[in-house]
Amino acid sequence: MYRISRSIFFAFDAEKVHYFAMNLLRWACKIGILRRLLQKIYEPKNTVPTKVFGLSFSNPIGLGAGFDKNAQYLEALSVLGFGFVEIGTVTPLPQTGNEKPRLFRLPKDKALINRMGFNNEGAQTIAHTLSKWRTQNPSSSLIIGGNIGKNKSSPNEDAWKDYLTCFETLYDQVDYFVVNVSSPNTPGLRALQEKDSLLSIFSALHQSRTQQSKWKPILLKIAPDLSKEQVDEILVLSSDIHLDGIIVSNTTIGRDRLVTDKKIVEKIGAGGLSGLPLQERSSELIKYIHTQTQGQLPIIGSGGVFTGKDAVEKLQAGANLVQVWTGFIYEGPSIVRKINRWIHH
Ligand SMILES: Cc1cc2nc3c(=O)[nH]c(=O)nc-3n(C[C@H](O)[C@H](O)[C@H](O)COP(=O)(O)O)c2cc1C
Fold first, then answer.
1. Is 183 a catalytic residue?
2. Which of 78, 183, 283, 302 is catalytic?
3. Which domains does the chain show, CATH number per domain?
């Protein structure tokens, strides 16, 4: 059934369709009978509840950051069965992001290229939206992650202040945090994956956390384009910065082994590539980190998950939880249910 909707959706601008489809779903979820019907269709059965970094997930399948940047679709996403949703990337001040078009499909590769550039409503507005959602859904089991970043206009030397602002503004509203230093669409951001920058960001966040009444895990999201030496450096650092977990991985700036015509890819231009072309690299990196850390560092696997088999591959590589993003666009709203069914068997 989704195949038909998808062929219609894919005839229109990718970003417009994203908002159209999600607004439609959000509207449907506001009508009791429709909501219950959708829940009946999409709610995963036979889930495997998962406990990681002190949090209990109703199932290990989540939605990656960048899909619901402003936390507007939590109800709809929970109806579709996601065990967790990562909102953001959130920056201290609102941002419009890069010029449109900035999201492109590569159907032959089951991939996307995006250069959104952290468009979001800013930490304060998003904290307010989340607080409203929490009040209206006090018994929801949906785990919410807060993916945080810096404004484009903030220099890298002051980046830690932006992360701290987002951290403190969202603290009471999210269940875990992700320090995003790996998006390719904010100039210079990925340089923050280097030792001194990570130390300054994480020490500011840890210090702030000691003043909070409740402990919340802080994760790091890394790029798949890091060299082995860079990954090793982060792993050595991970105990100094008391890393609670790692997300492997963000989108790649690579364009290797694409089937799509080279001219089309060149015309699209800069941006992060996600989906199937990222699958193998992300699984390799998960396996490497899991081995190096002897399974002691919790991992969220992200990159090219479309099916139950793909998710199991990530879990077998060492991931504790799995996120989908591009797979959701290609496979449709039943993706969480299908993956959970596969995992259970
Ligand atoms: C349009 C788009 C926007 C994204 N925005 C963010 C973001 O704001 N922050 C972030 O950490 N990751 C972002 N990502 C990366 C995804 O969360 C995910 O890590 C990546 O796409 C790999 O997973 P996938 O192959 O399942 O898509 C974005 C991805 C896409 C396609």
1. yes
2. 183
3. 2-344 (3.20.20.70)
